[in-house]
Design a protein that fits this description.
Helices cover 70% and strands 0% of the residues. The protein is mainly α. Helix 2 runs antiparallel to helix 3, helix 3 packs antiparallel against helix 6 and helix 5 crosses helix 6. The longest helix is centred in the C-terminal third of the chain and has 37 residues.
């Protein structure tokens, strides 16, 4: 199943397994751990929101959900069950210098740490989407020919 379809219909574990970075030789183990922590904290809450009609989990929504301000908002979204918000808050507290009371106005160190993870995650998502294009082109050719 391609990444777009997994986001629209898959379970949290299916989505997370596709997002997880598989080129660990390129990334320090600490950052791999932080990436896993972020993905495993956020994806279950996103799937809950998808399954309850709040979002559709189109690719742009997935990317937006991994922005720092979106994660901060998700951690305090009372419409999401607390057991799904708790791991999000734990991820945020793992960012050195993060202070919940500062809301979106976090220290530059927090923004840099998360920014690197967000950039790496977006690179991964772009790679997954690029892998889909040849398949989509073949399908389009078959329907025309």
């Amino acid at each position: 199943m391609n990444f777009r379809t997994v986001c629209l219909r898959g379970s949290a574990s299916e989505i997370a397994s596709q997002i997880r970075w598989d080129d660990t030789a390129r990334i320090d183990a600490i950052w791999v751990g932080r990436m896993l922590s972020m993905v495993n904290a956020i994806v279950p809450a996103l799937v809950w929101k998808r399954d309850h009609g709040v979002i559709t989990m189109e690719i742009h929504e997935v990317r937006e959900a991994f922005r720092l301000r979106s994660i901060i908002a998700l951690a305090s979204d009372v419409d999401v069950p607390e057991p799904l918000r708790r791991p999000v808050a734990v991820y945020l507290s793992s960012l050195a210098g993060y202070r919940a009371e500062d809301g979106d106005n976090q220290d530059s160190h927090v923004v840099e740490q998360h920014g690197w993870l967000e950039m790496t995650l977006n690179e991964r998502i772009s790679g997954l989407l690029a892998d889909e294009k040849p398949e989509a082109a073949q399908t389009a050719q078959k329907s025309v020919g």
